[in-house]
Amino acid sequence: MTVIIGVRFRKSGKVYYFAPDDLPIKKDDHVIVETARGIEYGLVVLGPKEVTEDKVVQPLKSVIRIATPEDDEISKENEMREKHAYKVCLEKISKHGLNMKLIDSEYTFDRNKLLFYFTADGRIDFRELVKDLASVFRTRIELRQIGVRDETKMIGGIAICGRPLCCHSYLSDFAPVSIKMAKEQNLSLNPSKISGVCGRLMCCLKNEEEAYEYLNRILPHIGTKVKTIDGYQGEVQSVSVLKQRVKVLLMHEDDEKEVREYHVSELQFEKKGRSANAPVAVALPDEELDENALRELEELEKEDLEEAAEKTSSSKSRNEYRKKHSNKNYNHNETNHDTSYQNEEEEPKKYRKKYYNNRSQNQNNRNSHYHSNSKNNYRSNKNYNKSYNKSNEHHSQGY
Question: What pLDDT digit, counting tens, does each position of 132-146 carry?
Answer without folding.
Answer: 999 999 999 999 999
